Amino acid sequence: MGTFIKLLLAVCTLLLTANFIPIVNTYRSPWTPSDYSMAGSRRARAVNRPAPINCQLQAWSSWTSCDSCTDQKGRFRRMEKPSQFGGTECVESLWEKLACPSAATECLVTDYCGERFTCKETGRCISQSLRCNGESDCNDFSDEDGCEVVNRRGDKCSTLLPIPSAERGTQGYNVLTGDFVDRVLDSNYFGGKCEYVYNGEWRKFIYEAVCENLRYNEDEKNYRKPHNYHTYQFVAEATSEGSQDYFTDAVSLLNARKTMSSANGGVTLGIYKVEVGLSGSSESEFFNNVTQYNSQELGFVRLFSKVQTAHFKMRSNKLMLDEEFYVSLMELPEQYHFGTYSRFFNTFGTHYVTEGTMGGTLEYVVVLNKTAMAESNTEAEQAGVCLGASIGLSQNLSTNVNVDLKVKGNVCRKERSTHRTNDSDSAEIVDIVSLVKGGVTHSSAGLLAIRNPDTYRSWGASLRYNPTLIEYETMPIYELVRLSTAADHAQRHPCPNRDVLPMRLQAGLPGKGLRRDSQERRPDRWVVVMLGGLVLLLIREEDPDQNL
């Protein structure tokens, strides 16, 4: 009897165990706590892997108001939580727009120009002397409409080309994302003046195959300078600063990129020919490509080259705003609305450029396998020297490279120095991530297009005509409004305490959205729109009883 009871208990134990042991599913998909949808089953995840966090959006705001001068109304919503660790991403828009109903009254736009001429579509104010001069001082050419006589200029500037890529310096800058966005200054406005800059490379010979003629490039001896540029100076011979550094992990690499502190060597690069077009890779794509290699078994060699082609400085007063920026500025509601102002800053940035350097940058990051490097007795510096030499950066980076570009180990085989390979000879190099800004790379993304000294020189030659901003100083966007030709009807605030207008970017701006900081209420005053501690714009508020 005792044996039967023991056998019965054993059978019951087996049945209970079979019913309550969870089934482990090793299917590779994001794990979430809600995955217990099937009774008695769960999905496995790595021990150190955090649970995915799905993106969450807040509720929609109220619609903006419609009046006789608006044809659209909008609403917005904020992101409550971003997607993390493989969670569901937010694919829906943060903005919505609808058409406003037809207005029963006529839109009466205030004419701020007085005796000056008003551009028809945008309301820009220009001098009457610019009427009928044959130049588009209004983007819609309304200043040239109805002219019985056109007084076309006959001076030197009538034949000059504008400065190549002058629009680069007129873009707004978003300090929160590090991106250059839409233009805030007009790069095509000359104000009726004839100002030009000297191009030191005009004496390069040009051979015309059709006419079998060798001549100087007289057409590019001078360029016409836009009104908003105070100075623009071409560098007579483009100079390149190169550096090579080794980092034990991705965090150290990214911190070094943030400070841009590397400056170990340099080479000189001449400008030889004209190329057309522009391409470059995304900073965010580069960041993602690097951060995917977070293993402690990997090291990083960073090669960096910066080529300068010109230096410039903007005017300090009477700046002419870009017409799209001007229209958007004047359409901002006087009563602060987070969605509208946030969209404005996303479109035109938080700052504008006051001076800077044109040129281009070339960056290669070699991802190395530390174990394979140790087994092959190869130094990390050798891998960087090899790659640098293969693209023409070897002169001043190191003296350890001979004519055949061979160093100890197998990582320095010239014919594949900029290609990722998987054979045993290149086990030390896991990947090569590149970022090219400015110039012509003959690649849709600017990735791995510069493979040898010839393509490096060709890229450098194209920078004079297709440069990008590589160094710059900025000021808050509200200062641009104050210093522009529109300042008389977009006045600065009367606050006597200038401490509320910080002029420099504070480290670590909090991303908590915009807020309004004010002084004592009084009629017809200007309040300050701030992001964290940074003043961005001024809003006029005429009603002293209006809630802030």
TrEMBL record:
InterPro entries: LDL_receptor-like_sf (IPR036055), LDLR_class-A_CS (IPR023415), LDrepeatLR_classA_rpt (IPR002172), MAC_perforin (IPR001862), MACPF (IPR020864), MACPF_CS (IPR020863), TSP1_rpt_sf (IPR036383)
Keyword Secreted: yes
Domain MACPF: 153-512
Alphabetical list of Gene3D superfamilies matching this protein: Low-density Lipoprotein Receptor
Signal peptide: 1-26
SUPFAM superfamilies tied to this protein: LDL receptor-like module, TSP-1 type 1 repeat
A Pfam family per the record: Ldl_recept_a
Matching PANTHER family: COMPLEMENT COMPONENT C6 (PTHR45742), COMPLEMENT COMPONENT C8 ALPHA CHAIN (PTHR45742:SF1)
Name under which the protein is recorded: Complement C8 alpha chain
Lineage, broadest ranks: Eukaryota, Metazoa, Chordata, Craniata, Vertebrata
